[in-house]
């Protein structure tokens, strides 16, 4: 039975959505306040979206110094799944747990829209239940999602198969159309799109569950794919 | 002694600055010709207690490296003077 911790920073705003979406794929999770020293024995951790510490200075710049980040770093070193969604991705790059940085969107606009994504590798903690090349529709909701790194880092990300998700139509100027990457150990994953917001037929897409169920160690056949009876079938019929 | 420090944080050379480019494109419409290389960044000011100017500069640069600028995308320029001194 997998149990995850979902870290709450002052200004996080997706933590309850993440807990609910994890519940849909049968993962038990608990909220952990950022001043805590440990993750309560959780098998993995999610850093959710939002505006940790008001995004002051740069998104994630202050959050990376929160006491809980030592435990997050320890878990990452130990090979446990560490997932950063949106602002959580920004925190992971600021903390040096993932390479690169997320700059302001190239068009200088806050982007809130559904994006089409391609699963570039299934060799990551968040895509091991997906298929290579699988297309997913997930919402983005960010002002600083423009992934940036130097040429050498981009080369390494490509050569090591560390690009996890790419945009079909790049909305924000990210180098290499990158929407999500993983660490060399493949257990730390950061992505700008929000899988938890595509976890119910009512939200218009169930594609986020394809990612979240990668965090379980249950057989795929036992997973429920909707948060209400018949949701999947109704969604399929409506599309 | 006390120093007043000004840190300017801007994007690394070679990293696109769409805000700077937008401003640069707007200036000719107002009749300002010949303006180029507009870069937008941020300024952080603070006072710092240190033994001497070298120590103040070393601390300021370390503080920039660890917090005020993200070296992946930004550079920081430190200027400092004894507090209260006009510059």
Architecture overview:
The complex is a heterodimer of chains A (239) and B (87). Chain A is α/β, with parallel strands linked by helices and 239 residues long. Chain A has a single domain (3-238), classed as 3-Layer(aba) Sandwich (Rossmann fold). Chain A has helices at residues 15-24, 68-77, 87-94, 151-159, 208-212, 231-238; strands at 3-8, 28-33, 44-47, 82-85, 101-103, 111-119, 135-142, 146-148, 163-167, 178-182, 188-191. A 9-stranded mixed beta sheet of chain A has the order 2-1-3-4-11-10-9-6-7, sandwiched between helices. A two-stranded antiparallel ribbon of chain A has the order 5-8. In chain A, α2 links the parallel β3 and β4. The longest helix of chain A has 10 residues, at 15-24. Residues 218-239 of chain A have low confidence and may be disordered. Chain B has a 3-stranded antiparallel beta sheet, with helices on one face. Chain B is α+β, with helices and mostly antiparallel strands and 87 residues long. Chain B has helices spanning 18-26, 53-68; strands at 2-11, 42-49, 74-82. Helices cover 29% and strands 31% of the residues of chain B. The longest helix of chain B is centred in the last third of the chain and has 16 residues, at 53-68. The A-B interface holds A 57-58, 61, 93-94, 99-101, 103-104, 106-108, 148-150, 173 and B 11, 15-16, 18-19, 22, 67-68, 70, 72-73.
Radius of gyration of chain B: 16 Å
Count of helix runs of chain B:
2
Q: At the fourth CATH level, what is the homologous superfamily of chain B?
A: Phosphoribosylformylglycinamidine synthase subunit PurS
Kindly, what is the distance between the CA atoms of the first and last residues of chain A, rounded to a whole number of angstroms? 33 Å
Secondary structure class of chain A reads alpha/beta
Biggest sheet statistics of chain B:
3 strands, antiparallel
Number of strands of chain A: 11
Average pLDDT over all residues of chain A: 91
Low-confidence stretches of chain B: none
Spatial strand arrangement across the major sheet of chain A: 2-1-3-4-11-10-9-6-7
In the CATH hierarchy, the architecture of chain B is 2-Layer Sandwich
Task: Write down how many β-strands of chain B occur, each being a DSSP E stretch of 2 or more residues.
Answer: 3
**CATH T-level fold name of chain A:** Rossmann fold
CATH topological fold name of chain B? Mth169, Chain: A
Identify the CATH class of chain A: Alpha Beta
> Which residues of chain A form runs of ≥5 with pLDDT under 50?
218-239
CATH class of chain B: Alpha Beta
Order of helices and strands of chain B, N to C? EHEHE
Structural class label of chain B: alpha+beta
Biggest interface, chains and residue tallies: A-B, 17 and 11 residues
Q: Strand share of the residues of chain A?
A: 15-25%
